[in-house]
Amino acid sequence: MSIESALASAIKTIPDCIAAGYVDMETGMLLGVDASDKDSADALENLAIAVVNLFQGRGMRGFEELLRAADVDEAEHAGFGEIAVFSNDRLHIFLRTREYPDHVVCYICRDSANVGLALTKSHLSLEPVAAAV
Question: What pTM value is reported for the model?
Fold first, then answer.
């Protein structure tokens, strides 16, 4: 299965999902994309570079260090695995893959999405998407 097919399949299962992308944080490249419209595809292109800063930027590293110092985070599992961002009319879900820690799957959902269900379904789709790489 191609990465685009895996992303298309994930979009069908995640409520109110309108776009999905697969980002390599080492290069900042969008390796795969599936979107319902051109604006969503363009948004994913712009998000690819921002994802690197989101997961590996100085602010996030500082936050992770504070959590480790307070014994809240385990040092062996460096970095956040999941980040959800709410904007005016969108829910952005970013999930780091276990198989490739420098890869992130991005889902864009309408703000009408049931957040808990969208997070659960996005987690369920993560393994098949990563396997397509």
Answer: 0.85
